[in-house]
Specification:
The protein has 16 helices and 11 strands. 47% of the residues are buried. 45% of the residues lie in helices and 15% in strands. The structure holds NADPH dihydro-nicotinamide-adenine-dinucleotide phosphate (NDP) and magnesium ion.
Length: 387
């Protein structure tokens, strides 16, 4: 490739699953990428280790109690150390940042993503919750500031890759593939018995705890349906979910002539991460290659939305629009956290989400304050339901 200057990256959530894999991609391509900012919530030791290796301009530890630990450990390095949630919004706006990778989990991604877009930074978006909560606001803001939102989520990266060169060709349908998670084929009676340890075992992907539970309940696919609606400007009726247990076809696009394009590869998040970082280029790498002849058959089935209610609830929230996807997300975040704390059953997760969707006030065209308020009120409601 041509010798373009290095892309300077602010990586929010560098200590997580996507964060660490993003640093692997950066480390493998030092001629293309440079780390400007690293951030973590609580993982001070890992953040310090990363900072010493990648020598960013600044780091943020969101948990202020860990500030002194990080500050002292990096005292001999020319690295600025900040603490607290607000700092995330400032570091993404630093002059020296070209691209912000949002690899933090949950609603916490919303405000720093807004700040980054307002500063005109390109976004490599892993944090799907941001688009679920406030897709209309985020995409509008991105248009105003002429900012690219590059998907990191593997399904959306697949669709994005299928759309290359198709700018004037409308999408007829998006087919989002889903592995089906660890409980594919189970009945509701089976699910009433499942444990946290079983839910945390994903068949194809190794990921953070929250998204792993979301994958087991199919809420992850529901969130991805909403994410796709905003990234690709399609309606709910144009999005179909297809269970494909091998996770080789990462998603498909059908055009108006009936032609379908798909993107394939072994399940490895480093590929979509690298694509988003290097876009519009493809960088050579040595990741293991998929071999059709040596692979068992690729299979497909319809998702079971009677058993996995969350997927149906996400479609419902998307169709109702307004602040309903924000309610869905907040209720789910609380329910998943309580499930991980052994205070809610697996089936209880979708019950909490469904009840919150029925109880929170509907706002048709929410402003940022309405999303903030909806998130807060939903969390209160969800916790009351679980208590
Ligand atoms: P992890 O839980 O592994 O990592 C989350 C990261 O965000 C950590 O660095 C964590 O810090 C930080 N963090 C957590 N809470 C907060 C907060 N409230 N404020 C600021 N920082 C916070 O998550 P994943 O890497 O699995 O997922 C990250 C995002 O990417 C999610 O939105 C997920 O849906 C999406 N995604 C993930 C995929 C995967 O393969 N993992 C695939 C596709 C999408 P600390 O280490 O200190 O806790
Ligand atoms: Mg995905």
């Amino acid at each position: 490739m041509t010798s373009s200057p290095k892309k300077r990256i602010a990586l929010l959530g560098s200590t997580g699953s996507i964060g660490r894999q993003t640093l692997d991609v950066v480390a493998a391509n030092p001629e293309h990428f440079e780390v400007e900012v690293l951030t973590a919530q609580n993982s001070a030791e890992e953040l310090i280790r990363q900072a010493k290796q990648f020598k960013p301009n600044a780091v943020v530890i969101v948990n202020e109690e860990q500030y002194t630990t990080v500050k002292q450990a990096l005292a001999n390095e020319p690295i600025k150390v900040f603490a607290g949630e607000q700092a995330l919004g400032s570091v993404v706006q630093m002059e020296s940042v070209d691209l912000v990778v949002t690899a933090l989990v949950g609603y916490a991604g919303l405000k720093p993503t807004i700040k980054a877009i307002e500063a005109g930074k390109s976004i490599a978006l892993a944090n799907k919750e941001t688009l679920v909560v406030a897709g209309a606001l985020i995409t509008q803001l991105a248009r105003e500031h002429r900012v690219n939102i590059l998907p990191v989520d593997s399904e959306h990266s697949a669709i994005f890759q299928c759309l290359a060169g198709e700018i004037h060709n409308p999408i007829e349908k998006i087919i989002l593939t889903a592995s089906g998670g660890p409980f594919r084929g189970k009945t509701r009676a089976d699910l009433a018995q499942v444990t946290k340890a079983q839910a945390l075992k994903h068949p194809n992907w190794s990921m953070g705890a929250k998204i792993t539970i979301d994958s087991a309940t199919l809420m992850n696919k529901g969130l991805e349906v909403i994410e796709a609606r905003w990234l690709f400007g399609v309606q709910a009726a144009q999005i179909e979910v297809l269970v494909h247990p091998q996770s080789i076809i990462h998603s498909l696009v059908q055009f108006e002539d009936g032609s379908i394009k798909a993107q394939l590869g072994l399940p490895d998040m480093k590929l979509p991460i690298q694509y988003a970082l290097a876009y519009p280029q493809r960088l050579k790498n040595s990741f293991p290659r998929f071999d059709f002849a040596r692979y068992p058959s690729l299979t497909f089935e319809k998702p079971d939305t009677e058993t996995f209610r969350n997927l149906a609830l996400a479609f419902e929230a998307l169709e109702r629009g307004g602040n309903m996807p924000c309610v869905l997300n907040a209720a789910n975040e609380v329910a998943v956290a309580e499930f991980l704390n052994d205070r809610l059953s697996f089936l209880g997760i979708s019950e909490v989400v469904e009840q919150c969707l029925g109880k929170l006030d509907y706002i048709r065209e929410p402003a940022l304050e309405d999303y903030v308020e909806t998130d807060k009120m939903t969390r209160i409601r969800a916790k009351e339901l679980i208590r």
